[in-house]
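Entry for the shared binder. Reason: the reviewer on the internal report wants the predicted structure included alongside the sequence.
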Amino acid sequence: MKKLLTFSLIAILGAASARADDSRTSRTELVGRVDTCETILRQFMATQKTAIPPSVWSQARGLMILSQFKAGFIFGVKGGFGVLMVKKPGGHWSLPVLIDASEASLGLQLGAKDVDSVFILNDDATPRLLFTNRFNIGVDAKAVAGPLSAETENESTKTFVAPVFAYSRSVGLYAGATVKAGRVERNDPANFTLYNTSYTMPELLYSEWVTPPTEVQPLMAYVQQLSP
């Protein structure tokens, strides 16, 4: 039994940390990831129960949207993808750059669950943590549950609590140990394909060297509308 558990742990952690070779992923699939992230954000904003209030958007310096899937028996695994955007000094938002999301947790895990998350980054330093390849939400960047539009009476006391405000929702059944905050990492190969460029994450986020392709403009326009 001990050998089985050891083997399972190695296999699960390996699966959680392994990264798909996105240099071989089609551009159509990568565009689909951006579309999925836009849909997630619009769904969050569509109802008062989950909408992020204007006071939070007004101070946002960055935005991260993640689509993740969690499943497991004995050990849990979470993998997925997302986009990262930053608000530039002139007030306009950057291109959405593709990122990877992964996570592993110990403890009894039953079932499966899709997890959609939106992270509002409240300073300029947090997005730059990804320049070193990866960071852990809640560890390298302190995160708290963000205020909602339905809780406007509490906004004034919550708005400046942490560098990161986290918003998350789940679909499906899951029972198990509490999962630690997820790890995200840059995905330059995917961005090379999506933007047909050799520029890496820092240039894509902070320069004006790449013209936004048609496929990413709806997300950029929507975020600009939320946080002008």
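Summary line for the report: The CA atoms of residues 130 and 164 lie 14 Å apart.
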